[in-house]
Automatic annotation (TrEMBL):
InterPro entries: FAD/NAD-bd_sf, FAD/NAD-binding_dom. It comes from the Bacteria. Keywords: Oxidoreductase. GO terms for molecular function: glutamate synthase (NADH) activity; glutamate synthase (NADPH) activity. It is an enzyme of class 1 (oxidoreductase). NCBIfam families: PRK12770.1. This is Glutamate synthase (NADPH/NADH) small chain. It comes from Desulfobaculum xiamenense. Its EC number is 1.4.1.13, 1.4.1.14. Residues 21-334 form the FAD/NAD(P)-binding domain.
Amino acid sequence: MSKGMNYGLFRDTPGEPNGRSVAVVGAGPSGMAASGYLACQGYRVEMFDKMPKPGGLLYFGIPDVRLPMDRIEAAARRLVEHYGVVFHPRVKVVGEGEDVHDEGDELVQETVVLEDLRRRFDAVLLCTGSWRSRRMGIPGEDLPGVLSGLEYLFPLRGAACTKDICVADAAGKRVAIVGGGLSAVDAADCALRSNAEKVYMLYRRTSNEAPAGPYEVALLHDRGMVWKELTLPVRILGQDRVEALEYIQCSLGEPDESGRRCPIPESGSNKVIEVDMVITAVGEMPTVPAADRVELAKVRKQATGWPRMTPMEGVFLAGDALNGPSKIGWAVTSGLEAARSMEEWLDWSANRV
């Protein structure tokens, strides 16, 4: 197996069975890390994921050029074949009476109610990730030809799993990508590789403040990407589909709560570029089943009865579902911390009886 993708972190064989069973919802990096840890501790682990293959956005949101899919597949296969983790694909876990559509749900074949899952297992860990894209909230955002970063990147691998998913073809098109994170960088990279006629990246700050960093931006610029910094989209233009993007120039003011200088629009500096496709990679939001009962904000503030546990007793949170989009290492760490907290809670619960 490829180096660096082994989620059985603590021992070479599964732990001696301890008679407890746990459900891990979400098979991204936090879910696989938690599953590996718990399997090593002797738990019977079952993973549920709405995708047909384990990996989450690690597999379906990151292009092969950045992270080869065979490394992810090998890590998941080792969990199943070597550590005995049971994987349930194309299953979405929802709250009771919940009917919410998120990106990637096209591949779902079955839904399971979280409350029923909790009754079947000793504990449940939610690692459901961030599958809901943020919107810019500007006119024209609903025009055909406007896609979120996930809507553009997900089908590049998802289309291999079903004929019902179509890949948005950027070949010969003028593409504007809004955002400065790794999703925006990946979208620009894929558009360039698809032989787009022109690729623009628009970001409200400079490359020095971009989450992806100036190095990634420079690499794309060397390949022909047009970098437009200190720009804020205000309107997408077109009749039946995208025809142009209007933006306003910004300057940087005082730092905001993130510590980065705040972009300030400059009145009268509006400009328009003609484009055929707009990809808005401006972030994603956590997608948690039974959100009203899970109370994400309370778990983040550690205002519940046990670290990482929700107000639903025995239901825990980890990864991007808890903290929002993050880097792979942070997601893995979050999964391990939540799994350890779950284990301590189960031990405590057994001793209080």
